[in-house]
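Narrative of accomplishments. A recurring question from our advisory board has been how the design workflow behaves on a single, concrete structure rather than in aggregate. To address it, we present the structure tokens for one chain from the evaluation set, followed by the sequence designed for it. No filtering or post-editing was applied between the two.
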């Protein structure tokens, strides 16, 4: 998967906006929490292979979205995203967790 730098900037801005938790819309409480990581690796020695770089940069985010309605039913969604600037095979989007929880008499 190839992700451009402009798309990464947009994703970071959206993720930063979603980290402000406690939204409430039409009877549904929305909470978000998670981590945002920045990884920078630097190698002191030069390599003979021109395809290898002396520095590497990657960005990762794992955010959990928890939605709870007025009847205490909940939906949890946790995607994981990583962008690697030099190795496109390390860039990924993964759905780590998604489930719906309810209890009681669901026939009514």
């Amino acid at each position: 998967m190839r992700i451009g730098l402009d798309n990464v900037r947009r994703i970071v801005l959206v993720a930063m906006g979603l980290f402000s938790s406690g939204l409430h819309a039409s009877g549904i409480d929305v909470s978000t929490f998670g981590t945002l990581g920045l990884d920078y690796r630097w190698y002191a020695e030069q390599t003979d292979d021109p395809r290898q770089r002396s520095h590497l940069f990657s960005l990762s985010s794992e955010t959990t979205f928890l939605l709870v309605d007025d009847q205490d039913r909940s939906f949890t969604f946790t995607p994981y995203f990583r962008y690697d600037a030099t190795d496109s095979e390390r860039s990924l989007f993964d759905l780590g967790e998604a489930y719906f929880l309810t209890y009681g008499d669901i026939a009514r």
